[in-house]
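To the wet lab folks,

You asked to see what we're planning to order before we commit. Fair enough. Below is the target structure as tokens, and below that is the sequence we designed to fit it. If anything looks off to you, flag it before the synthesis order goes out.
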């Protein structure tokens, strides 16, 4: 039998002279290697494993911004708060209002894999290399990679102009240092009437049941596994019945929430922790205003409260298509991952 010498047996015994490291030959690329070494950092694990980063704040993009003024894009940029150099509303997404005065057109452009447009107010049409689609209040459409301009034209609207809620993933592309080249889904249109009909059908099917949400997930045939709006974007048209509360829940990704419809006394409570009864501890209150957008930080518990006599509606946009793909598919039964939506 041949003995196998392991690494430990080759170590010097106590009292023996330490092993000497052979001399390192002078590199032919010493200057370049020194330059490369200038950007190398090495951290002690315990101090750097969970780096302190600028937190996602609770902020509001008010509706008055798209209710007056010239045709323009009104960005909801909070990159200064996040200590990010490029314009963004969350690390991966950018949200804006697009105001288009009646009889006018405006062009938008984003280096993005996914662009979503929800019609807050007005009627008109949008033209791009993908074709032309007509829209009216309550419609939503998404387009894939679009190198050229997208032109939006307002035909009719209250307050002198149409308003679109525009969300895309250009900040994610900027972070990765890439430009998308492959179309991952086809242009997709969700008409208001169809979405509301689906919500109504779900309501009838759940009469008498304790359902914490009454809404519809907006999916795409190209995203059968993740059941998401695009491979990156996730969205839900969610209703809160009159005089009701949607219990505290949380999700892993930042939510960019559009208050589609809300009477006075509709609001969201947010906080980092809940008590034993499921109530949020020391909550921040964010009142809904029709046509306004508010940011819900990732991992925060939040509950929706409707103390009015009318149904309230909210349309969140998240990058949860990405999270669902990474977490739900790769680790479907992990007990250590925060669910995409609790």
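Sequence we intend to order:
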């Amino acid at each position: 039998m041949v003995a196998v010498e392991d690494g430990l047996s080759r170590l010097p015994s106590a009292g023996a002279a330490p092993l000497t490291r052979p001399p390192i030959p002078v590199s032919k690329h010493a200057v370049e290697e020194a330059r490369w070494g200038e950007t190398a950092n090495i951290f002690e694990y315990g101090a750097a494993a969970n780096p302190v980063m600028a937190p996602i704040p609770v902020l509001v993009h008010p509706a008055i911004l798209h209710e007056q003024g010239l045709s323009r894009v009104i960005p909801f940029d909070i990159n200064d708060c996040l200590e990010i150099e490029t314009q963004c509303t969350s690390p991966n997404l950018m949200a804006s209002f697009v105001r288009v005065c009646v009889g006018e057109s405006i062009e938008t452009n984003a280096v993005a894999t996914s662009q979503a447009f929800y019609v807050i107010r007005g009627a008109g049409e949008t033209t791009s290399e993908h074709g032309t689609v007509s829209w009216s209040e309550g419609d939503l459409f998404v387009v894939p990679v679009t190198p050229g301009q997208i032109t939006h034209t307002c035909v009719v609207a209250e307050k002198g102009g149409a308003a679109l809620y525009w969300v895309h993933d250009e900040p994610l592309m900027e972070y990765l240092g890439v430009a998308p080249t492959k179309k991952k889904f086809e242009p997709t249109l969700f008409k208001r009437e169809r979405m509301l009909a689906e919500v109504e059908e779900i309501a009838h099917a759940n009469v008498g049941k304790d359902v914490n949400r009454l809404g519809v997930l907006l999916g795409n045939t190209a995203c059968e596994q993740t059941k998401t709006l695009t491979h990156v974007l996730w969205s839900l048209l969610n209703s809160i019945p009159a005089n009701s509360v949607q219990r505290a829940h949380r999700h892993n990704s930042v939510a960019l929430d559009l208050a589609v419809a809300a009477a006075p006394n509709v609001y969201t409570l947010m906080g980092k922790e809940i008590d034993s009864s499921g109530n949020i501890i020391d909550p921040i209150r964010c009142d809904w205003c029709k046509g306004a957008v508010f940011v819900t930080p990732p991992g925060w518990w939040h509950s929706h409260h409707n103390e009015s006599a009318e149904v309230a509606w909210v349309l969140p946009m998240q990058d949860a298509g990405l999270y669902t793909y990474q977490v739900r598919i790769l680790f479907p039964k992990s007990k250590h991952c925060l669910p995409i939506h609790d």
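Structural context that might help your review: The domain at 62-329 is CATH 2.60.120.10 (Jelly Rolls). The chain has one domain: 62-329.

Thanks,
Computational group
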